[in-house]
Amino acid sequence: MYIRGDHAELVVGGRLDVRSAADARTALHTAVDRGVGDLVLDLSELDSWDATGLGVIMGAHRRAGRCGRRLVLRRVPPQMQRLLVATRLHRILAIEGGIGVESLPRV
Asked: What range(s) does the STAS domain occupy (predicted)?
């Protein structure tokens, strides 16, 4: 897993899972704490995430809210869009362009 960017936009790539959760959490919390306005997470380079990785995203979302910021997901890969819909988190998280639920392939 890698995260590159600054306090306004981060690109998250690789696997966001139990192995990378601590590093990802630190990077996201630092970005939230140091910036103002929306924090955009570009997920186009993310290969996969598990429940722990999703928990890191939700933790960053809550922390951003407490800091008066908004976490915005950009370019969410289709397989991750399905997970957000299945967990109904697409209703809570800000997703740039939204998720076209009806266009997602059924699994």
From this structure: 1-107
Write the secondary structure of 18-63 as one string of H (helix), E (strand) and C (coil). Answer: CCCHHHHHHHHHHHHHHCCCCEEEEEEEEEEECHHHHHHHHHHHHH
pTM: 0.86
In the chain, what are the domain boundaries? 2-95
Terminal alpha carbon distance of the chain: 26
- C-alpha 67/C-alpha 80 separation (Å) is 26
Strands 9-16 and 39-49: parallel
Tell me the pLDDT tens digit for each residue of 40-96.
999 999 999 999 999 999 999 999 999 999 999 999 999 899 999 999 999 999 999
Cα–Cα distance for residue pair 13/68, rounded to 1 Å: 26
**Integer Cα distance of 83 and 70 in angstroms:** 21
CATH class label, 2-95? alpha beta
